[in-house]
Amino acid sequence: MCVSVYVLCVCLCVFLHCVCVCVCVCVSVCVCVCVCVCVCVFRHLLELLRRTAVHGESNSVLIVGPRGSGKTMLLGCVLRELMSLKEAQKNVLLVELNGLLQTDDKIALKEITRQLHLENVVGDKVFGSFAENLAFLLEALKKGDKSSSRPVLFVLDEFDLFAHHKNQTLLYNLLDVSQSAQTPVAVLGLTCRLDVLELLEKRVKSRFSHRQIHLFSSLSFAQYLDVVRAQLSLPPDFPDPKFSDEWNHSVTKLCEDKTVEEILRRNFNGSKDFRSLHSLLFLAVSRVSVSHSTLREADLIEAWRLISVDSKANVLHGLSILELCLIIAMKHLNDTYDGEPFNFQMVHNEFKKFIQRKSHSIHKFEKPVVMKAFEHLLQLELVRPVDSGVCKVQREYQLMRLMLEHGQVMEALQKYPQCPTDVKQWALSAFG
Amino acid sequence: MSRYITRLRMRRTYKWNGRPVGEDRKLKRQYYESMSISVEGKTEDATVSLGQYILIEGDDDDNPFVAQLLKLYTDDSGKKKTAVLQWFVRMCEVPQNKRKLLGRDPHPQEIFFYQDRSCDNEVDGETILGAVQIEYVPVQDPFPVGKSRDILFVKLLWDTKSFRALDPELMQPPQSPKSPPPSSRGPQTRALPTPDPSVMKRAMSGILTRGSMSTGKMSSSEAESLHSASKLSAAKALSAKRRSQAVSGPQVRKKLDLCSPSKNMSRDDVLGELLDERSEKTLTSKLNTSPTGRISISIRLTPLNLNKEECVSPLSSHSPDKPRMTAHDKDDAARAEEEHEDSPINTAATSRSKRKSAQLVSSRIKKQLNLLGNKIDLQSDGEDGDDDDCFIPSKIDLQSSSDEEEEAKIDSEDELIVKKHRGSGTSRSTEKTRVSARTPRKTPSKKTAPATPRTPRHATPSIPSRTAPARKPGNVLEEARARLHVSSVPESLPCREQEFQDIYNFVESKVIDGTGGCMYISGVPGTGKTATVHEVIRSLQQSAEQDEIPHFRFIEINGMKMTDPHQAYVQILQKLTDQKATPDHAAALLEKRFSAPAPKKETVVLLVDELDLLWTRKQNVMYNLFDWPTRRNARLVVLTIANTMDLPERIMINRVASRLGLTRMSFQPYTFKQLQQIITSRLNRVKAFEEDALQLVSRKVAALSGDARRCLDICRRATEICEHSGSQKNSSGLVGMSHVMEALDEMFSSSYISAIRCASVQEQLFLRAVIAEFRRLGLEEATFQQVFVQHQALCRVEGLQPANVSEGLTVCQRLGSCRLLLLEGSRLDLFLRIRLNVSQDDVLYALKAD
Predict the structure, then answer these.
(1) What does the CA dihedral B793, B798, B801, B803 come to, rounded to 10 degrees?
(2) What is the pLDDT, as a whole number, of residue B451?
(3) Count of C-beta atoms within a 10 Å radius of residue A12
(4) How confident is residue B59, by pLDDT bands cut at 50, 70 and 90?
(5) Which of B 620-679 lie inside 8 A of A, CB atoms?
(6) Contact at CB, B760 and A269, closer than 8 angstroms
(7) CA B381 – CA B388 distance, rounded (Å)
(8) What is the CA B55 to chain-centroid distance, rounded?
(9) Which pLDDT score, from 0 to 100, does residue A74 have?
(10) B831 → closest Cβ in A47, A217, A401
(11) Hey, how many other C-beta atoms are within 10 angstroms of the C-beta on B846?
């Protein structure tokens, strides 16, 4: 009993440590992105929203940037800052919509009505038909005026999805309100599509103010390293200063390491967004335990290995020799016919040729057995029929494509445990 | 809605009462004293006679026109019945813009004496719906409270320009000049003696000082009007009866004598008249002063009480007709009995306030009839109304207590007995008709199925108001920015003078002629179409206010602001009459409204914005919109707005396009000079821009789209940029070229290049690989597999470790989500099809400069 409690305590301790570190990482991400990416943009947006809140000026703005570039975070910071202003504090209504949740105008309208607490909301439900709701909302917005009614901030996440709604009714109306003397509104769209304006219908487009804020990270690798260091470091007010010092020291050392730098550079080359970095570091940090309480190079390498592993590699590892042979046969067919689709019969022929000519270790399989193996590959989607629509063709002659890259096959062969050498050689040989 | 149907279903028949009282040989007219209206399915008739206040069928089912009947005549053939009227107007009939002239909120039951020579005062006799009760209230007196909701009050006179105090004299039915020559009028036809004018005057003053309701005239016909309106509560009527019986007794008897030989009037007419004799409480005050008032003061309590019980039971019980009918009969019998007895009432009762008597009666009702069950019944019946009240207490007309409501209910039922001649079976529907005729908003709630929750009807749409007041613009730039905002309404619309004039002339001519027409206005977005039309309407409304042109209604609908083309009907109807209906029903109502002739009809100007969205497969919405103006009586002007010039040819079928006609106008995109003028006029001497800067903006926008909104937005952005930079370096404080350039760059420059520049190394390599593959293939499309091979090769060239397939796909997808690449068939994995969304040159340019 005692022992188990002790173990539990230790576990908890470790867990807490991990959580602590992770939380710190999270927080620093916040700060870093905001500080180093977009001070200027931040000011622009804040000023814009402040004018809506304080002067009652209607605005519309799009924040465009690739995924993970910090659009939502930027907006969150701006809104936080805005709400801390005394003059804007109680003067703003916020409506948040997401294109992935509000998939059509009907749902979106209900959500707006609910968030605005208009009078046709009973409890948490919005009553009335779509037409009634629209009329009601428009009437409500129309009744307001610049000086007396509370400004409404509409945040439309995944803005591009709203443009796919029928007739773009919602966007038209919101933007129309923002361009007419009604309740002051600010329409803030967040999207990762650069061509978002082309999605808007011409009337809607004309009503949009064309104010776009682009968030691109022009980060250099040195800055990126700094961010990594800052993210991993514990804040000075960490309750255990000794541990904190030790940890921060190890982090500094880690960042100077060549291997680690190489890994980080590869990650940086892959994408500049902080989400991928975050997931890498998270994996590394989660390997920290009581027994080794600092972050080591090996942790990061292991994390990188986990992250960068090819998604199909593991599937290939689990294949039987026969299936692997079939895949090699398909690879040869691909090489021979320059990527043209093949059918089972061709693969089987190729496989038979290999058995007859070169194979020493692999004995002859019956055709149904080979067929079974082939179907297994089909199930794993390593092979895919070219056109699933046509099922009239006999199974053996249905055209297929191999869903594997040349390199993937070779790598799998290298790593395959106890792979017969004749199979390896067959794979390496130029043509079957 | 149901009300409308029932009204259609009820066919009324009209016939003259008695013989013609006069004849005009020259005009070949025969004048009549009264007319009886019988409603199909009812056994009893209602009667309207000269001097009485009547309701005339109008466009609005809830608010029929009110008038005083002056003459009734038939033409030679004897078929067409014509009524000559003195109109009264409700507040809702007064043009919107003039309503403020009243200087106060109108009383919900208030109507105005209508003095307009141009208005046709002859209507078809068959449009008369029935009688109504009107009371004159002196100007300085407050409106009487606690009266039935069906009594209308008249206080002022409306002469289409202003409200004036109404001379009570005007309320008198013009006796000699308008009624048929007295010689031809047999004295025997007069039900009541013509009252002495001096008596009337005195009576009036008496009434006025007491502030009770007053009719302002005492003629027999007036008495009858009181009857048929009989908006007094039954209870009140009963209590009044006792009081008035004494004085009116002789008259009643006289009338009875009169009627019985003629056999012309049905028993109920008599009853009605009797009823109204009883209910005409106001008369009692006069009668007190008049000689007849003092006839007898003897009091008989017992029979009265008995009578009371009998009378009350039918009225309080809300159950269907049968019992009430019998009760009614009993009541009738009792009354007949009374008449003979000539029982007077306590004169003290006369001085009692009406309210008191009502209370007294209701308390008695409760006591005597242990009304509990009935009361519940009553309330459940009047529930909708009560609910209404709960929802908006701000609505004055609904502020009556439920008590009063019940009262109104009772008495209107009473009225129903008299007026509608309730036949068994139809009572329910007629009741509905009546109820909704009084308060329109009840009708929808009646038909609302409880299963489908709807918007609470009286939820008032509003956005909460702000706690801190909005700040006013502080400096020149802020001022300029406020003026440049698209929403700010400019004093005038420059550069659209010609279009303005054309539309103005079109609408004005239609309004003046009282005809209808369509106009189609096209133009790319941001060229001021809607703004110009609004401007036209504004100035037309101004001139209507100055009585240069007749009044008209302006209604606006927008295709984008509705969820379905058929909602157009609903919105038009709602804006026109404030009714709610389903699309189909709204279409039917509008159809009726625009095709039926009606007196006092205003021209309606309908603006249909974004017309193209009203397109349906059968195009019936468009068809109706363009067909209505062609009706003879419609007086509808339809202005339609859309973006494309050839919309009628492209999407409309022939019969629709033909009805739209050829009155078209197209708004050209603004030229740079016009744009410059627009900005200048908006800024209106606020010096915030350098001339060159303005010119640059307008030239740039004119070259791109000619969209004024764009132009204003750019200018607004430029002021912001100027504000930011102004704090850093000491510039002139004006918006200069550099600021405008920056704003233009921000809005018009493509973001693709900077996106590519900021992309990660792998992403850039992938783009390169795509181009390399395209060049190799000679096509603009490649599969991921092909590109990936190139990508790996490029990685080796660049000395990077080649990415594996998963990484490659991630990179590819990320570029796809930004729409730098167009990806197709993402489930195809390696065979994902890739195209570039940017030109190859742009990519190479972006990558080279790196």
Answers:
(1) -50
(2) 40
(3) 10
(4) low
(5) 643
(6) yes
(7) 13
(8) 19
(9) 92
(10) A401
(11) 21
Give the pLDDT confidence of B642-677 residue by residue, as tens digits: 998 888 888 888 888 888 888 889 999 999 999 998
Strand partners, A94: A153
Contact yes or no for B471 and A339 at CB 8 A: no
C-alpha–C-alpha distance, residues B501 and B469, integer Å: 40
Asked if B567 and A131 come within 8 Å (Cβ–Cβ), the reply is yes
| CB within 8 Å: B754 and A131 | no
Q: Closest approach of chain A CAs to the CA of B385, in angstroms?
A: 19
Helix (H, G, I), strand (E, B) or coil at B614: helix
Q: How large is the average pLDDT for residues B409-415?
A: 43
Q: Phi/psi of residue A78, each to 5°?
A: -65, -45
Closest CA to B284 of B243, B250, B231: B243
The pLDDT assigned to B111 comes to 81
Output A40 or B812, whichever has higher pLDDT.
B812
Suggest the residue from A119, A121, A276, A384 to mutate for an interface test with chain B (most B CBs closer than 10 A): A119
Which residues lie below 8 Å from residue B261, measured CB to CB, with a gap of 6+? none
> What is the spatial distance between Cα B465 and Cα B796, in angstroms, rounded to a whole number?
64
User: What separation in angstroms does the CA of B779 have from each of A242, A266, A295, B475, B836?
Assistant: 63, 32, 50, 58, 11
Q: Over the stretch A268-304, which tens digit does the pLDDT of each residue have?
A: 998 888 888 999 999 999 988 888 888 888 889 999 9
Residue range B742-757: mean pLDDT, rounded? 87
Please give the helix or strand (H or E) that residue A308 lies within, else none: helix A297-308
CB B582 within 8 A of CB B570: yes
- Please report which confidence band the pLDDT of residue B50 belongs to, taking 50, 70 and 90 as the band edges: confident
- Does residue B225 contact residue B53 with C-beta atoms inside 8 Å? yes
Mean pLDDT of chain A: 84
Between CA B502 and CA B185 the distance in angstroms is: 58
On the question of pLDDT at A240 being above 90, the answer is: no
Query: When comparing pLDDT for A325 and B30, which is higher?
Result: A325
Residue A234 confidence (pLDDT) above 70: yes
Task: Please list, in sequence order, all residues whose beta carbon lies within 8 angstroms of the beta carbon of residue A196, skipping any fewer than 6 positions away.
Answer: A62, A64, A159, A160, A163, A189
Tell me the C-alpha distance between A148 and A57, whole Å: 12
How would DSSP label each residue in A333-380? HHHHHTT--B-HHHHHHHHHHHHHHT-SSPPPPPHHHHHHHHHHHHHT
Query: Does pLDDT of A154 surpass 70?
Result: yes
Residue B544 identity: A
Handedness of CA B617, B622, B627, B628 (dihedral sign): positive
Nearest one of B602, B610, B598 to B529, comparing CA atoms:
B610
Distance of alpha carbon B381 from the chain centroid = 26
Question: Chains A and B: how many Cβ contacts under 8 Å?
Answer: 236
* Gap between the Cα atoms of A109 and A103, Å rounded: 11
> Cα B533 to the chain's mean position, in Å?
21
At B174, the pLDDT band (50, 70, 90 cuts) reads low
- Secondary structure tally for chain B: helices H, strands E: 33, 22
